[in-house]
Every structure is written in structure tokens, then in C-alpha cells.
Amino acid sequence: MSIERRSVNTARQILPYLFRAADVSGRDAPLVVFLHGAKDRGTDLGQLLAWGFPKIVAEADSLPYHFLALQIPAEATWPDWRDELFSLIDSVSAKHNVDSSRVVLSGFSLGSAGTWLLGSAHAERFAGLVIVSGRVPEGIDDARLDKLRHTPLWVFHGERDDKAPLIDAQHAVNALRAKGSSVLFTVVPEGDHFIAEAAYGDPALQRWLANIPAVRRPQAAAA
């Protein structure tokens, strides 16, 4: 099945997005939501398909998860379009019979900042997070990290990233592990900022995405 170019009409403007359904029945596959980086903002979905995660998905012979990639306007950040993103996730999940407890949020660069912020603020929505070449936003403090201690995370970073220092990612990973998180951390040797294809093309990550367990939602307090 090929990747589809679609659009969604929001209250503010029409936004383009990519979608590819899994090659298994809807509820047997998670939904992986990808947040692109700064240079891919705009209205041309060809920019997303030219490289990185969307390119890998588009060229895959088969896909064990549903894939969704919204494109936000130039100069925007992901928290600016949170409501539209979440609404699209919900509508796509309903249309394709996706298990809402198995939604993974992932981002590259600017999209990783969005993943940190949206994933920690709404941890109950996501079964896992994947961070690639991500600068850790200032808003990700100890309290935000604490909300992610039970969320499966995988952080990828280039050893020689000159745009988002490796040490920042290492500090976040260390802080999560100190809280009991089993966060995975992969440093790409000699890798610069643009390691998206190395990260998302990793067979181990692809298996991890396909087999993500349902989100651990907080239990109601006993009466």
C-alpha cells in the first residue's frame, strides 16, 4: 500500500498530511505519529517525502504500523498546533480502527522538541516516544520528566551534532534513568544532526515500534 497525501480542514487553515495504513488489521497495529523538523514546514508534502522517516515509510514493502505525518505552517512550532494535531490523531484512529492506547509520538529536531513538550504534557495519550536529534526544550524540567518515567522512550542522537548538543540529550536520559525509566539511548558514531534515516531505518527501532505495548494509564484511586 502506498503512502497517501491528504489534507485536513481546520478552523485556522487547511493542513496537508501523509498517511499510510498498516499491512495488518487496524487494531493489531499501533499508530506512529511523526513530527517533522523546521526545514520541512510549509505546504509541500514532497519536502517530507524526500528524506528521513516519511521516505522510509513510503518506500517500505510492507508496514507493521499505521503512519501519520502532519505538516505545519512556516515559522510555526508543534505546540502551536497541538489541538489540530490531536484532533487529527483521534479522527484517523477512529476511521482506521486504531487502538487509541497504542499511539507513538516521534519527532526529528524541531519535531523532537514538540515530542518532548507534547509527550510529557499529555503522557496519558502516548504509548511511547521516539526522540531523534532533539534539543531538550527549557520547559522539560524535573516535573515534566517525572511524568515520563513509565513511558517507553528511545532517544537517538548524533555523536557530532553541532545543532543540538549531545550532552543535553545525555542529561535528560540520565535524569529519566535516575527516576527508574528504562529509556533507550542510541548515539550514532560520527553522526551529525541529520541522522534521521540512520535512526528510523534501524531494524531494532522498527521492531520496537511495531510491538509497542498499550499505554499505562493511571489507575483510579481506591474509594
Tell me what the structure shows:
With 223 residues, the chain is an alpha/beta fold. It has a single domain, classed as Alpha/Beta hydrolase fold, catalytic domain (Rossmann fold), CATH 3.40.50. It has helices at 45-49, 52-59, 82-95, 110-121, 142-146, 166-178, 196-200, 203-210, and strands at residues 4-9, 14-20, 31-35, 66-70, 103-108, 128-132, 153-158, 184-188. The chain has an eight-stranded mixed sheet, sandwiched between helices. Strand 6, helix 5 (142-146) and strand 7 (153-158) form a beta-alpha-beta unit. It is globular. The mean pLDDT is 95.
Give the secondary structure arrangement, pairings included.
Blueprint: E1 4-9, E2 14-20, E3 31-35, H1 45-49, H2 52-59, E4 66-70, H3 82-95, E5 103-108, H4 110-121, E6 128-132, H5 142-146, E7 153-158, H6 166-178, E8 184-188, H7 196-200, H8 203-210
Parallel strand pairs: 3-4, 3-5, 5-6, 6-7, 7-8
Antiparallel strand pairs: 1-2, 2-4
Protein name: PHB depolymerase family esterase
Domain Phospholipase/carboxylesterase/thioesterase: 85-196
Keywords: Signal
